[in-house]
């Protein structure tokens, strides 16, 4: 299916790069004509989200025909729950996120939101229902207000300021001489990694989606900033369904459920305590990360 992309088409390249990295996919989608390999079914209705549950039902998927990546994956995220996906590199965590956002369709099985097969609803309605907070946010060369309000057409300055407050970036903006009208990006004010993430959180809050997909930062932030941002994310995840792709286990120990992926299969699932007790892959990953944290020179996670 990859051949469907026009190889020399720059936008196609951007699209693929974005898709691969999960970098601000939502934002990029609107910038480029996403002539992707998935299409709306004829006469597809809009997704109607009353209770934002998410389910993978026996999903089989691969990027190339000769290599299966997800081998019949099933799991459920109840409406309002916070579920984390963990596992070794290459286990299929980002692939789950890409399928949920419908960058690809499964070979077999279904992905549903509130009981509706996401392949049968319009892509616009699907993407409106999911907010993504990526690990690395792209800022547009425009004002900080634009970068936040971008989450939803017609957002007012009041709504933008409220979102900035909830994302704890307002004090920073308020100190700028031109406030929300300050230019950012390459040609304007440079933001730190943490500030950029807060802009991404505010952007998602303006969009106000029932489902949040968090791609947790692996690095770039010092641990104090990371803790602050995690606290903000937890607060904004309340009353929403949250799916976090986590690299550091210490950040998701309080999730309602942890899905442990290994080589495209669900190896284990349960709470942090239950998984430690089970003494399997999760417990092993946990012990290893704890040992790394204790090594001299490492900042505590
Ligand atoms: P990490 O923690 O390193 O980000 P992950 O668990 O998120 O890993 P995925 O990105 O989902 O893993 O990748 C799962 C498998 O799919 C890997 O073996 C990867 O090489 C493969 N893969 C990912 N994207 C593509 C692609 N576009 N084409 C072919 N194979 C891919």
Automatic annotation (TrEMBL):
<feature type="domain" description="ABC transporter">
    <location>
        <begin position="54"/>
        <end position="288"/>
    </location>
</feature>
<protein>
    <submittedName>
        <fullName>ABC-type transport system involved in Fe-S cluster assembly</fullName>
    </submittedName>
</protein>
